[in-house]
Design brief:
The complex is a heterodimer of chains A (494) and B (351).
Chain A lengths: L5 E5 L4 H16 L8 E6 L5 H15 L6 H8 L2 E5 L5 H18 L5 E5 L6 H10 L11 E5 L7 H14 L5 E3 L7 H11 L13 E10 L7 H26 L8 H14 L5 H7 E7 L1 E3 L2 E3 L17 E7 L9 E8 L5 E8 L18 E7 L3 E9 L7 E9 H4 L7 H11 L8 H19 L7 E5 L6 H8 L9
Parallel strand pairs in A: 1-2, 1-4, 2-3, 4-5, 5-6, 7-12, 8-17
Antiparallel strand pairs in A: 7-13, 8-11, 9-10, 11-12, 13-14, 14-15, 15-16
Helix pairs in contact in A: 1-2, 1-12, 5-6, 6-13, 8-9, 8-13, 9-13, 10-13
Chain B lengths: L11 E3 L4 H11 L4 E3 L3 E8 L1 H17 L2 E8 L8 E11 L6 E11 L7 H7 L7 E5 L9 H6 L2 E4 L7 H12 L7 E4 H4 L2 H12 L1 H4 L5 E8 L4 H14 L3 E6 L2 E5 L5 E8 L5 E8 L2 E7 L5 E8 L5 E6 L5 H10 L5 H10 L4
The chains are: A alpha/beta (494), B alpha/beta (351).
């Protein structure tokens, strides 16, 4: 159980607060995981009373909470939720905030512990952090703790990420900085380490001798959904690969840490990013395919192309799909490719890691004339979190016919208790000071260093590789299929 | 009464974007009473509202032997536009092992007449991941289709007997569909119709005493059911391809081949009431080999008369011509059907 504290949310009237943060805190309270004296202060520009704010949050929590809302508990929770109106750059607002937090400490016994959640655009970070420092809010007045959670994007490239990290670390020490990547809070992402290091059967096989390749897919049927200006400036590579997918790659590829402390785990993860074979110039054209969706159909309904989306540049060259072939140049993964694919307006939503093992020898049952498929271990991150193992089995009958079958483990059906939402775990960890599931500064900067080369080849080089198109509702451009088929492999069917 | 997976034999209409959620909910409600089973994705395309009902019944029977996720897609040419209606249903059967019901999901889509381009997305969106995709395309193949759809299909089932213009359809298959997917196996149910006849013929000539007679075949007579000429042609094509004959000419009465020694072999085809392929008589200078379905018998009867030998009679499995049996036979078979393609190539001109 974490110590009592006050969670201060900057950007409290935004979507994230309503859909994720407050429902997550409520669910933690429902499960008895929150200190009873936890308080929440919403910091935002709009005029609002505490009561109005509470009312809005109640509606949102009833809508988005994974558990039904109990009136009695909500009333108790809501009494400790407050609204603080201020411009992000107004020093006066911080002066008042400091005073209010002291009052809350006195009234609710939150002991001067503060968790600041920056759910705002990165352009606001500097102003907020400077003011927090100016008014001493980056230090607990009573010897407790003061921490900050930063939402992605952690920069736009390596230079801006460094700048941002400087800004954050000028106010909060790295140990008090929690860069949130909600993928890492998902039950199955956390289970990757358990699967690998708590089971005797997998780790001996988890290397270039037995694994043929790894595929990591994050697909979604949604388009830009009103995020046009942000997405058009970012693209799939920055929005998804730099953070979520490289994190999943790290968890899949890392060496066993010496212990489960945050830094031991993150030390191993960062080694994986450092081992990624850099892609320069022509290698980008060879190993990375970018695509943009054109009009098509999703769920039986026609949808417009990317360039026709609201508030998207009609001549945009932003990728809504990217497929990459990556190599981790270390002993364990020598010559084993990691294929990554991410995109919008794909037929099916899902995020998974598929570890494909080498084929059985081409004798007995796996002759060239009658190949049987490979074993595939699939870790489903979302939806329907779980793990499946594909293997070959003889179909009953006198003839020898071999077909793939699947052993499937679903979190949802195997455990009576529903998995907590990613934000529940991450908020709780931040309150407890456990940064294992948060990105460290060097991880973020290394990831940007790798991504910058690709972005450079696309947008700065004299001879950029083409931006291919794909119909909305398809599985991406055919060039992405060719990327993997060149190696005699195919993308998995989700 | 609330729907549960075991009682969901009639379709439950669902919003297309909520299919997975609804299925999940139904499984949760039916937990303990039923086990979900799936070894393949079995997608069926058909035309017309009535065909949906007919195919749902077929799927229900298929699921008794082949656990699958069924995706039924119907195109209703009477409905304007590209509308889509979806419903979910389940086919549950008592398992062999005990009292627990084994259930297979079916997701059905009824499309308006302009809905053909939506099919790839519908199939892609609702597959049970990691399992093979068997697509049964009922009727003529689509002239314009998404290449990516074919690349995802492991086995494409069709029935060339139902094609109005088989020559054009085979051309489409060879030029547009097959090249799109090297891994796809073409499975013609019209070919499956002659499976037991082919097996019987092959077994007869497995006998060392009869094997030499194959090179001396002079005449073949195939009796086929009404409208089943193409089934008989494929059977003739199979024999010709396996014996490395060359097709010389053809007319409504049959085909004329040249064997490896350039000697003529006539294949006569005629129609008579009964099975798709009622009988096959193969004659040599020394006698004849006849494989035939006899009325009232579920076996194939093989009669061999060779000069200097006593007459021989064998009974062999005869199979059935109904569509469920054909599908079951096809779904139980593996491999690439390379012999089928050779047979098609042999008689392509005559189709």
């Amino acid at each position: 159980m974490p110590q009592p504290c006050t969670v201060v949310i900057f950007g409290a009237t935004g979507d994230l607060t309503h859909r994720k943060l407050i429902p997550a805190l409520y669910n933690l309270a429902e499960d008895g995981d929150l200190p009873s004296s936890l308080t929440v202060v919403g910091f935002a520009r709009r005029d609002k009373t505490d009561e109005e704010f509470r009312k809005e949050l109640e509606e949102a929590t009833r809508k988005f909470s994974r558990q039904s809302v109990h009136d009695e508990l909500w009333q108790s929770f809501a009494k400790r939720v407050f609204y603080h109106r201020s411009e992000f750059g107004d020093p006066e607002g911080y002066k008042r905030l400091a005073k209010r937090l002291e009052e809350i400490d006195a009234q609710f016994g939150t002991r001067g512990n503060r968790l600041f959640y920056l759910s705002v655009a990165p352009s606001e970070f500097e102003g907020i952090l400077k003011n927090l420092k100016e008014y001493g809010l980056n230090k607990s007045p009573t010897g407790g703790w003061s921490r900050v959670i930063v939402e992605k994007p952690f920069g736009y490239d390596l230079a801006t990420a460094r700048e941002l990290n400087e800004v954050v670390n000028n106010t909060f020490a790295e140990g008090d900085t929690f860069r949130i990547d909600h993928f890492l809070g998902k039950e199955t992402a956390q289970n990757i380490m358990v699967l690998r290091f708590a089971n005797g059967i997998f780790e001996p096989l988890w290397n270039h001798r037995y694994i043929d390749h790894v595929q990591i897919t994050a697909s979604e049927p949604l388009g830009v959904e009103g995020r046009g200006p942000y997405y058009d400036n970012s693209g799939a590579l920055r929005d998804m690969v730099q953070n979520h997918l490289l994190q999943l790659l790290c968890l899949t590829g890392m060496e066993p840490p010496t212990d489960l402390s945050a830094d031991s785990v993150r030390d191993e993860k960062v080694k994986v990013v450092r081992s990624l074979r850099p892609l320069h110039g022509e290698e980008v054209a060879k190993n990375v395919v970018r695509g943009q969706y054109v009009a098509g159909a999703i769920n039986g309904k026609p949808v417009v192309g990317y360039r026709e989306e609201e508030r998207v540049n009609p001549q945009s060259m932003t990728e809504s799909f990217v497929a990459l072939k990556l190599n981790v140049d270390n002993w364990r993964w020598a010559d084993i490719p990691f294929y990554i694919r991410v995109g919008k307006r794909l037929p099916k939503g899902g995020t998974e890691i598929a570890v494909q093992f080498r084929n059985a020898p081409a004798v007995l049952f796996n002759k060239a004339t009658n190949e049987v498929g490979a074993n595939v271990l699939v870790i489903r991150i979302q939806p329907d979190e779980g793990i499946s193992l594909r293997m070959q089995a003889k179909i009953p009958g006198t003839a020898l016919r071999i077909e793939p079958v699947k052993m499937d483990f679903h979190y949802g059906t195997s455990f009576g208790k529903a998995s907590p939402e990613a934000y529940e775990r991450l908020l709780l960890d931040a309150m407890s000071g456990d940064a294992t599931l948060f990105a460290r500064r060097d991880e973020v900067e290394q990831a940007w260093k790798f991504i910058d080369e690709i972005e450079h080849a696309w947008h700065v080089s004299a001879n950029p590789p083409p931006l291919f198109t794909y119909a909305a509702g398809s599985w991406g451009p055919k060039e992405a299929d060719e990327l993997i088929e060149r190696d005699g492999r195919t993308w998995r069917r989700l | 009464m609330a729907n549960s997976i075991t009682s969901l034999t009639q379709g439950l209409p669902v919003e297309i974007g909520k299919i997975d959620r609804e299925l999940k909910r139904l499984w949760q409600e039916g937990e303990g009473a039923a086990t979900r089973a799936s070894l393949i994705n079995f997608a069926v395309y058909c035309e017309g509202g009535d065909a949906m009902r007919e195919n749902t019944e077929i799927i229900s029977k298929i699921t008794q032997d082949h656990a699958c996720r069924a995706i039924l897609i119907g195109l209703d040419r009477a409905t304007p536009g590209a509308s889509v209606e979806a419903c979910i249903s389940a086919h549950c059967h008592l398992s062999r092992a005990g009292a627990k019901q084994v259930c297979c999901e079916q997701i059905s889509f009824l499309l308006g007449r302009d809905g053909l381009p939506l099919i790839p997305n519908i199939v892609f969106s609702h597959l049970d991941s990691d399992l093979p995709l068997v697509l049964w395309w009922r009727g003529d193949l689509p002239e314009e289709s998404e290449e990516q759809l074919w690349t995802w299909v492991d086995r494409l089932l069709f029935d060339s007997q139902a094609w109005a213009k088989p020559a054009e359809e085979f051309q489409l298959l060879r030029t547009s569909i097959e090249p799109a997917s090297p891994r796809m196996t073409l499975c013609d149910l019209n070919w499956t119709r002659s499976l037991y006849m082919r097996q019987a013929v092959a077994q007869i000539f497995d006998h060392p005493e009869y094997l030499d007679e194959l090179s001396g075949l002079t005449r073949v007579e195939i009796a086929h059911g009404p409208g089943m000429r193409s089934t008989a042609l494929l059977l003739a094509g199979w024999l010709g391809a396996q014996l490395r004959w060359k097709l010389e000419s053809f007319d409504p009465q049959g085909l004329r081949f040249l064997d490896g020694d350039e000697k003529p072999v006539a294949v006569a085809l005629w129609e008579e009431r009964g099975r798709a392929v009622g009988s096959m008589r193969m004659s040599t200078a020394d006698g004849s080999f006849v494989v035939a379905h006899h009325e009232g018998s579920s076996f194939l009867h093989a009669d061999i008369q060779l000069a200097g030998n006593p007459e021989s009679h064998y009974l062999m499995p005869g199979g059935k011509d109904d569509i469920v049996c054909l599908l079951n036979d096809e779904l139980m078979s593996g491999g690439k059907h390379k012999v089928y393609l050779k047979a098609v190539n042999m008689i392509a001109r005559a189709l």
